[in-house]
Specification:
homodimer, 2 domains, about 180 residues, Nucleoside Triphosphate Pyrophosphohydrolase, four-stranded mixed sheet
Chain lengths: ~180, ~180
């Protein structure tokens, strides 16, 4: 294991902190580690029907460009991840899902962040709001799953959670792990 | 797009920075964004033969536990990603690869980091050093690819780059995109 010796500096954002620690490695050597303390997050792979995925186009400040992703967001304090997934789907797309199932939970940036993203798949979608979060989302796009897999393989889509959502949904489908009534 | 209004605070680590900015959203609203300026990184899915993957067990300070992952690391200043991948493979495992091919490049934490991880697959491995980086790596493990896919599906492995490396290698293989002489 690695033990903290002391925190050298710390940055407080609204929903998380970043801190630089001096740590003692298992060999005794001293080094520095950045650690981001991040709330858990949820993402949703939303099926409009058996073939088509509902996606969001949004500006990403950290990479200074617009991307095409599955809906996602951080959990509010005390909010469970399923509630978070439903809320983000509604806020970002205006849709409610009749069926929502867990697909995969993972660490996106294990080297410097404790963030966990729980990915769900959703189906039985109904539009319940005509508006979406215009601060965050430029527009909705409907992308056939086969085309989405091509956009990933050809490198057009580079967002980790979207890649993992599609890949693990397919893996679970191949293993018969998607309930028969999921698309009903 | 989103424009920076000003930087509120900044944290300098050895190889990257984290900063909290006030930004103006496309709607005119003002909010805060964390942005980590991170060097590019490389990861390697190393095949000992057609069936077995060479993996590393290491302590992850950000999540305070040991994990099983594919070898990976940040590029040194000026270092290209292929050189970085070969160096990390050698440092973390002691192996040199005769064949190394790009598999996928992605953004692991698009919401707050500009990090890009370029994943390679490697084969034709030869052990050229008996030691590996004992500061970072607890031990090497050889994991059959089929078992690795099970460890992912069952949630034992939660490291994003390992999941994407395996998933995209499989997708490229299914599309005939892995060169016939890769394992030769």
């Amino acid at each position: 294991m690695e033990e903290k010796v002391r925190t050298l500096s710390k940055l407080f954002a609204n929903h998380f902190t970043a801190q630089l620690d001096t740590v003692r490695l298992r060999t005794g050597k001293i080094t520095e580690r950045l650690k981001i303390d991040h709330p858990e997050a949820a993402a949703v792979l939303p099926f409009l029907d058996t073939e088509n995925i509902l996606m969001v186009r949004q500006w990403r400040y950290a990479i200074a460009r617009e991307t095409l992703e599955i809906p996602a967001g951080k959990a509010d304090p005390g909010e469970d991840l399923l509630t978070c997934a439903r809320r983000e789907l509604l806020e970002e797309t205006g849709y409610h899902a009749r069926h929502i199932i867990p697909i995969f939970s993972y660490h996106p940036a294990i080297g410097y962040s404790n963030e966990v993203i729980q990915i769900y798949a959703a189906a039985g979608l109904t539009r319940v709001s005509e508006t979406q979060d215009v601060d965050e989302i430029s527009r909705l796009e409907i992308v056939p799953l086969a085309q989405l897999q091509d956009l990933i393989r050809t490198g057009v889509i580079s967002d980790g959670k979207t890649v993992i959502g599609v890949s693990l949904f397919r893996a679970r489908q191949a293993h018969g792990e998607i309930p028969a009534d999921f698309f009903a």
